[in-house]
Amino acid sequence: MTAAAEGSAPLAASRPGRKPLLQSESAQGLALITPTFLYALVLLVLPILVVIAHSFWTQHYLTIDRTFTLENYRIALTEPIYRDLLWRSLYISLVTSVATVVLAYPNAYYISFHGGHRKGLWLFLITIPFWTSYLLRVMSWKVILGYNGVLNSGLMGLGIIDEPITALLYNSNSVIITLVHAWAAFAILPIFVSLEKVDRTLIEAAKDLGDGPLRSFLRVTLPLSAPGVISALLIVMIPTVGDYVTPKLVGGKDGVMIANAIQAQFGKASNWPLGAALSVTTMIVVTAMAGAAVLIIRRAARLAR
Amino acid sequence: MPEHSVRPMGEIRPMIEIRNVTRSYGAFKALDEANLSINEGEFFSLLGPSGCGKTTLLRMIAGFDNPTTGSIAVDDQPMAGIPANRRPTNMVFQSYAIFPHLNVEQNVGYGLKRLKLEAGEERRRVEEALAQVSLTGLGKRGATELSGGQRQRVALARALVMRPKVLLLDEPLSALDKKLREQMQVELRRLQQAVGITFVLVTHDQYEALAMSDRIAVMFGGRIAQVASPKEIYQRPVNRQVADFLGGMNFVRGEIIEENGASLTLDTLGFGRVSTEKPTAFVRNGGAATLGIRPERLRVLWDDETSQFQVTGTVVERHYFGEITHLVVEIPGLEKPLSVTETNDFGADDIPVGSAVRLAYDPEALVAMAD
Q1: A164-188: per-residue pLDDT in tens?
Q2: Domain ABC transmembrane type-1: where (chain A) (predicted)?
Q3: Is A305 close to B102, i.e. CB distance below 8 A?
Q4: Which of B95, B111, B158 is facing A201, going by the closest CB pair?
Q5: Contact A224/B90, CB-based, under 8 Å?
Q6: What is the residue-averaged pLDDT of chain B?
Q7: Are B62 and A305 a contacting pair at CB < 8 A?
Q8: In A122, B47, B131, B149, which residue has its Cα 20 to 30 A from B276's Cα atom?
Q9: Which A residues, 178 through 217, put their C-beta within 8 Å of a C-beta on chain B?
Q10: Given this model, what pLDDT does residue B1 score?
Q11: pLDDT tens across B299-321, in order?
């Protein structure tokens, strides 16, 4: 350390006060993120500010009245239709994210612990469904779950049911089933990564100290993979609250979610301020829910010890 | 090096019995027909270079690996089919494997949780184990806030608290710096004598093995070359490989003149005619044999000193190591020059390169061994 300090002293003396801007580490870091930052600023932060501004205004047919009002929020929070839609959206996203994580964990565990030399191949296979458009994948669930769909005709062919089950399509359940499938890979990957980081010696140590396979999983592997579980949960939960395409295609009348209502306000209903207020409300509620989920999991992990 | 007194245990009883154990990975044999008996209360070391099969053997005793053929018994119980979590052994891992999400207390108490002890009893045992490794008061410290030496102690306490019949240590000191390592060697030895548990240590550091063990098994290429006390291993290595691994050794070729019963008489070029004790497993291989003498068993003779057993040569190299000086002395007739280690109290560090020296040796220190 001393040698380095001595070596750099004459250099600094020859160029007093002119520390090259691009050579400092923080400047290099800033240079790296600047394009992304500008992009995010223009296309994310500004639109959100516009939305927030609109939510405090009023629309009279084609003109916007820019006097400050909380009327839109009153409607968004008290109108039963919007309250129900928001609750349903939260319920669907919560069930979807929990179900996705529960189903993804064994997959990730298998690839990480038993994937051997084929881990790369397994991960590759998981991404295959993403080669097709999301719309196509949702449509194929329609084919599977429909009145004359694959599932119904299959069950009837086997003689398990006499007439098609109508509860399969056009409700919250069909939205959840479709979303769980659509988001599976996004949950498998973070869980896989965190499982890969679990030092296998720790599992051996747990066994050495008397734990059977289940106990060592619950006491070592699961808590240490909690970061992956939390990120998987959030990655699925946050976008699904505001999903618009899935409920539109397979949700029917009973599967409508808050995003569909927001879209209606910005579209047919031509009430941008109300749409904006609904958007902002949803954002705040999602943030609160995500925060609560993180806190609950952290607390649970602490108790599990 | 301290002489370890005989344990006041009375009868010697085997704690671990390893019978014809082979572990193969395809055509490669990590361990080849190993036979070993480790006694109760013994500090036993498996010593060898990396890849010699010592860790494989340790992991098979722990239950993390299984013999391809052969059997392992701990305390007269055959271990075949018994998983690691139901064996009366506990392990200190090379990386220590401290649970990062638990604090010191929770790490040490990890194995006790399952035993459903009374709350007070569990606490008392954790405290006792922490005291044994001098970590009292650090119970609430997070696993990530520990120094290397402290992590090692936590790993030790976590295993000791289980009161195993056998404690397995996989190169536990290799990650520590020299000073701490030497301190821990003394502490480990003291701890083992205090608790009286059988310790099996895997190490590639010969000084570590010599300093701590009651007995050592030296291993090469999946085979056990020699099992004996540190002194025996150091002074009477069975072959050149063992001799070399345990520190410096001068090798001298000799013609066998006479072989009878327990003794061997050889003619050597540098040392003349030598009579020596025949090694137990000596197999005559033609008319020649190898003799070895440790560098510190050669002594420089000053001015008027004489010895009945001496050789004369020229100093060709001198290396200074603080308390000792290492001399390389060419002896007429010997293929390779002799290495001599001299303490510096008499001025060995001032012997000029190129000067003639006489070296005295104890004929007892010249030992015959297999190639």
Answers
A1: 888 888 888 899 999 999 999 999 9
A2: 86-295
A3: yes
A4: B95
A5: no
A6: 90
A7: no
A8: B47
A9: 199, 201-202, 204-212, 215-216
A10: 40
A11: 999 888 888 888 999 999 999 99
Q: Which residues contact A58 (CB under 8 A, 6 or more apart)?
A: A64, A65, A67, A69, A71, A72, A273
Domain ranges of chain B: 14-236, 248-369
Q: Residue A199 and residue B95: Cβ atoms within 8 Å?
A: yes
Report CB contact under 8 Å: B97, A205: yes
* Domain B14-236 CATH (choose: 3.40.50.300, 1.20.1540.10, 3.20.20.80, 3.40.1190.20): 3.40.50.300
Q: CA–CA separation, B248 vs B292, rounded Å?
A: 10
Rounded CA-CA distance B167/A288 in Å is: 50
Specify the 3-state DSSP secondary structure of A124: helix
Both tokens assigned to B135: 């970590």
Please name the residue of chain A whose CA is at the shortest distance from the CA of residue B106: A305
Fold of B248-369: OB fold (Dihydrolipoamide Acetyltransferase, E2P) (2.40.50)
Chain B residues with CB-CB distance to A210 below 8 A: 85-86, 111, 114-115, 162
Q: What is the pLDDT of residues B189-213, one digit of tens each?
A: 999 999 999 999 999 999 999 999 9
All domains of chain A, ordered by start, with CATH?
A: 79-259 (1.10.3720.10)
Smallest CA–CA separation between A211 and chain B, in Å? 6
Q: Could you tell me which of A262, A203, A210, A180 has the C-alpha nearest to residue B161?
A: A210
One-letter-per-residue 3-state SS of A225-287:
CHHHHHHHHHHHHHHHHCCCHHHHHHHCCCCCCHHHHHHHHHCCCCCHHHHHHHHHHHHHHHH
pLDDT in tens, B228-274: 999 999 999 988 999 999 988 999 888 888 888 788 888 888 888 88
**pLDDT of res. B230:** 96
Q: Would the pLDDT of A66 be above 90?
A: no
Other beta carbons within 10 angstroms of residue B9's beta carbon come to 12
| Among candidate residues A245, A231, A244, the one with its CA nearest the CA of residue A282 | A244
pLDDT value at B63 more than 90:
yes
pLDDT band, very low/low/confident/very high, at B349 (cuts 50, 70, 90): confident
How far is the C-alpha of A223 from the C-alpha of B349, rounded, in Å? 60
Which of 126-185 (A) contact B at CB < 8 A? none
